[in-house]
Amino acid sequence: MAPRVQLEKAAWRWVESVRPEDIQREHIEIAYRICIPACKRGACRRNCKGNPNCLVGIGEHAWLGEIDENTFHNIDDPNSERRDKNTFVGLTNLGATCYVNTFLQVWFHNLELRRTLYLCQNARAEEHNMDSDYEPRSICEHLQYLFALLQNSNRRYIDPSGLVKALGLDTGQQQDAQEFSKLFLSLLEDTLSKQKNPNLHNVIQQQFCGQMSYVTVCNQCGRASPLPSRFYELELNIQGHKNLTECVTEFLKEEKLDGDNRYFCESCQSKQNAARRIKLHSLPRVLNLQLMRFVFDRQTGHKKKLNTFISFPEQLDMGPFLEEKEDEKCVYELSAVLIHRGVSAYSGHYIAHVRDARTSDWYKFNDEEIEKMEGKKLQLGIEEDIAETVKSQTRKPKCSKGYHCSRNAYMLVYKCQREEDTDPMETNVEVPGFLGRLVDRDNRKFEEWCLEMADMRKQSVDKGKAKHEEVKELYELLPAEDGQEYEFVPLEWLKKWLDDSTVTKEIDNGNFLCSHGKLHPDKVGEAKRISVKAAELLFDKYGGGPRLDCSTLCEECVGQRCRVLRLKNQLAEDYKEVTNLVKCPPKSDEGYWAGKTSLRSWRQLALEQLEEDEEETKHSNGKTNGEGPEITATKEYGTENLDGDEEEMKTFNEDILCRHGGLSILESERRLVTEEVWSKLRVYFPKAPQFTQLQEPCQQCLRLEREGKENEALNRMMASEQKSSLLNLFQEKNRPTLTKWPQETDILYIVPLFFVDEWRRFIRRPTKTTPVSSVGNSLLLCPHRGFMFTFDSMLKGDAQHIALLWPDEWEVISRHFLVDQPISICRFGEATPNGSSVEYTTQPELCRDCREGFIFQQQRDMREYAQATVYVRKVIDDKRLKDAAPEMNVSGSEAEDEREEPVAKVDGERDPDFSQSEDGAKRQKLSDGTVSAAASPAPMASGGKSGIRRSTRHRKLRGEKALIVSANQTLKELKIQIMHAFSVAPFDQNLSIDGRCLTDDSATLGSLGVIPESVICLKADEPIADFAAMDDVYQVCMPEEGFKGTGLLGH
């Protein structure tokens, strides 16, 4: 099929030879593309939107032919959630609780611990009504129910959220897995010690507790001082070691106590050199070996992970490490390996490899996913042992038979070999009846859910099959045969009807209607022509309307489009002819006035007028399909660009139309054209204003012009008089200052600087600006009519708001302007024994209450802010920036004023960490009579009186970045932001502001004196080469609290 633009051109090609009044039915059908052949299946990659007869590529391929039942629904097979035979049950990861799941699976496979938990008394579960859901309360009840579900549930995985919530754990924060293990076993031991059954009190000790002692031997007298202790796991340092034996040996090796670390001997009664070592006296049934992969890095101040390969055996003989062997079993068999995947101590993923005590098969527990290892062998797999950093890859060492090697194992669980472990009675753990009933109830709920899901799947399949038959039947009826009646339906509706993922709504043809209530010719590309029989079936089933049949083809719209297109085609010839005819002057009294701007751009105006006429026939919803001819015409005739200072023309002769609707009085903007020229222009602009040669200009405009000239003359006279009376004020010469009070007067008058600026602007351009009529001193007064500034405050910076006047200047001001409140400052001198004393007072006097409130508000605004901007400037190699641009810059709204006159600007504060050119490089030029006239340059006050225009925008320098901060934000949180902006870790950041170092990470920015628009200097230390440590810092944005506030600590 031809491209869409070609189809649109072909639909209107007949207008070149047919006038609007000669349009026939065949022309209307061509415009609506009724006769374009329909596309055959396979001929189009996608649907031809320009062809209303193309019904290919609208989604029908999904329904034609045989369809798999699974395409009719998006419901997974509920049996995929069912536990496979002879497999274990997984645990759902609630966000970052994989470390909890691994330990729960390890403890579940400890048959003695599981059997003990089942013996715990649980009156609530035993008496529970099976009609309602069982909700455990205590930690023991939760663990009981969870183990029962892990043992007998029909689900592939279960949700441990009840236990996690009872422990008070944050599901979104990953915690220290080793610390969790210690705290949970301690909590469980305390819980079991309170059981009524005395056989349960010491189960944790029997399973996990061993005996050791710290023995210190005095080198002087040889006295040995043992300190007995219990342990539940051995914490083994792995740094610098290759295998487990080396780690255990270092754990037990002798430690020298000398120098400042000498030991106080009870026998010698003095400090002596000594030797200390750990002695193992007895080992537990389950030996937990914690490999200390997560250590504290003193350099960074954070934890880091040691990705060191450690080799460990499947059978571990602890005999050589015991002091008193006797008959104690010392050979242990590996029963679990806990893995941490990832290079950072603050992120990653935990999984567990656990050996089944009954079958000796190894399983990998990865939250919901459980994988059985082949050949009853532990297979750690490549994904557990390869770290995620490619640069620091080290080769995995070769392991001997019966050994395994891992760089991610952080805990090894060994179980003592006993003969009774092979006894079926010992390996078989029965679920108590009261827990079995609860599990059976949960299994029934699961089966009901499976049936419900299966039923929903069946309903979706049945619905899909019915839709399949409907589509196959209707799609064959859709094409409209030549010579038969037809109707139009929206293309988008047909697509949604064929898209089974969306609900089919009623047919809406309302967007296709033209202003005459019929089918718009530009909307035909968005509709499809179908047979009446198919339309009847669709409208009967889905409803909607209005129905658009062959009688709704709009003859009026086609005629209007024909007229517009013909004029567009004729425009090029008429443009050349008018260009030649305009050169000929009209005969006397027979011409017409035409605007010169209109004549220069009449071709573009004609195009726009034709397109506007065409737009009137278009529907208002979005773009239409009839844009092809418009685009072609625009490209063909080009665009006439007007001069930059001329406003955009909308209609012809608009440029000679005054605001009263009459002929403009400016003869230079219009010219006379002949009647022949005007008649041709009138074809394109039938609504354009028409003025004959005899038409008189607008009388109101003539009267206003006379009045305007008179007002301009008055303004010039007024400006000249005021300028001569206040020449020094205008030229900023001989201005009084507060820093050096003039000797010839004891009184100066104060007016707002804003008033002086506006007055100077009027003096410079009296005909373009409005005269200043009043002074407006109320800007400088409080609500009680008191003055807001003191003499000292004006010296320190408030003088930027005011201008000082001599007494004779004030007399002139009082005569020429309305003064709401005179403001003056007086100097009084008194003789004292130590010399003369000078005091300054203002009239009206200072309002102390409002002044204090004003200062307090300023200070509070500087200390209590939210979403304010500060700037961080990075210093490289202790080099100081040569130039520091002023912090105060002119806002964009003042740009025009600056072009008119020099405006005083205040220098930015000098930053002690950076040098600044002595002459104030890049600063705005200071005028003699503004800020410098009132006082020496000073930092701008942060608060200001409303109505006083000033700029506070900071000009960013190279190497400087803006950050959004709040006053209650801590310095550590700011360092995290700086880290993301500059890629400098917090511990490498040295921050300062105004020469003060910022070191207290816990302090808020408000308390540290960081105010809005502050510039903070950043000096970065040399970055460390440990990428894993850098990753740790990115993870630790808040202080680590561990298990504080959780149930593991008794809260």
From TrEMBL:
InterPro entries the UniProt entry points to: DUSP-like_sf, Papain-like_cys_pep_sf, Pep_USP48, Pept_C19_DUSP, Peptidase_C19, Peptidase_C19_UCH, Ubiquitin-like_dom, Ubiquitin-like_domsf
GO biological process, one term: proteolysis
Class in the EC hierarchy, top level: hydrolase
Residue span of region Disordered: 610-632, 885-953
Annotated Low complexity bias: 932-943
Membership in a protein family: Belongs to the peptidase C19 family.
Name the record gives this protein: Ubiquitin carboxyl-terminal hydrolase 48
